[in-house]
Design brief:
The protein has a domain at 2-160: Methylamine Dehydrogenase, Chain H, CATH 2.130.10. Helix content is 2%, strand content 40%. The chain is built from 1 helix and 19 strands. The chain has one helix spanning 200-203, and strands spanning 2-3, 16-21, 24-29, 34-39, 57-60, 65-69, 75-79, 95-100, 104-109, 115-119, 135-140, 144-149, 154-158, 175-180, 184-189, 194-198, 216-221, 227-231, 236-239. The protein has a 4-stranded mixed β-sheet, with no helix packed on it. A 3-stranded antiparallel β-sheet has the order 5-6-7, with no helix packed on it. Strands 8-9-10 form a 3-stranded antiparallel β-sheet, with no helix packed on it. The chain starts with a strand and ends in a 12-residue tail after the last strand. The model is unreliable at 1-6 (pLDDT under 50).
Length: 251
């Protein structure tokens, strides 16, 4: 789950299997994989294209556009289309993962796990590194993107790296989940360890954040500040500037 902010969901919303949010929020509902969106109406980010079903991946950008992958691997985007970020390339091969930054969109393709990006960013490069393949998951911050590869390694690109957001910690391996926020990233390792890097105000894991004898089993980040994990005990715990203001529930 990527949780980047958003507003309160509509009453009676049930069957949520995927959730992504920024200025707007979108939920993929079971069993048909339909999408419902709510929140900020800017650029029509909450107006879901009719007939969209079987969605297996979705993301919402800080720049009010949304992209989803349907059951056939087709990428469908809507909302703000500045620079063509909500217009997938003609003939785009079937995709399995999607991540959206402010001015561009990236997907990981089913065949080979290569990455394709489109849109426009006049300041920072957004094209993936040459030869990048084997990608199983993607996550994007404001101007940067990170990819999780099938060997458990992480590759990041874009932005200006002023906060070290694309400098992956040396020796980081065995990663099972990756989440990015504005200028930072966190990786969840198979061991349940959490490793974060980038903006030190949002990427510094407090000592003892994961209690002894427990491990993190799920990972989520907000748009600018906080990181949350679900512990093996079922408790959700967060750190960051706003974590104490909005305490999470106990599962």
């Amino acid at each position: 789950m990527a949780n980047k902010g958003g507003d309160k969901p509509p009453p009676g919303l049930t069957g949520v299997q995927l959730l992504a949010s920024s200025g707007a929020s979108c939920a993929v509902l079971s069993p048909a994989g339909t999408v419902t969106c709510w929140g900020d109406q800017a650029k029509n980010g909450t107006v879901v294209p009719p007939g969209l079903t079987g969605v297996t991946a979705i993301d919402v950008s800080y720049g009010f556009h949304v992209c989803a992958v349907d059951g056939s691997g087709k990428v469908v985007c809507w909302g703000d289309n500045a620079g063509g970020k909500a217009t997938p390339p003609v003939g785009l091969a079937p995709a399995k993962a999607v991540a959206l930054a402010d001015g561009y969109s990236c997907v990981s393709l089913v065949a080979g796990g290569t990455v394709d990006c489109w849109g426009k960013n006049a300041i920072y490069p957004f094209s993936p590194p040459t030869g990048l393949a084997g990608v199983t998951a993607l996550s994007a911050g404001l101007f940067h993107t990170c990819a999780l590869k099938d060997d458990g390694s992480v590759v990041c690109w874009g932005g200006d790296n002023s906060m070290g957001e694309i400098t992956v910690p040396a020796g980081l391996t065995d990663v099972v989940a990756i989440k990015s926020s504005y200028y930072s990233n966190c990786a969840l390792k198979r061991s349940g360890e959490l490793v974060c890097w980038g903006d030190p105000t949002t990427a510094t894991v407090p000592p003892g954040f994961i209690p002894a004898g427990q491990k993190a089993i799920q990972l989520a980040t907000t748009d600018t500040t906080d990181t949350c994990v679900t512990l093996s005990s079922g408790v959700i715990t967060c750190f960051g500037p706003d974590a104490s203001t909005y305490p999470p529930p106990t599962c």
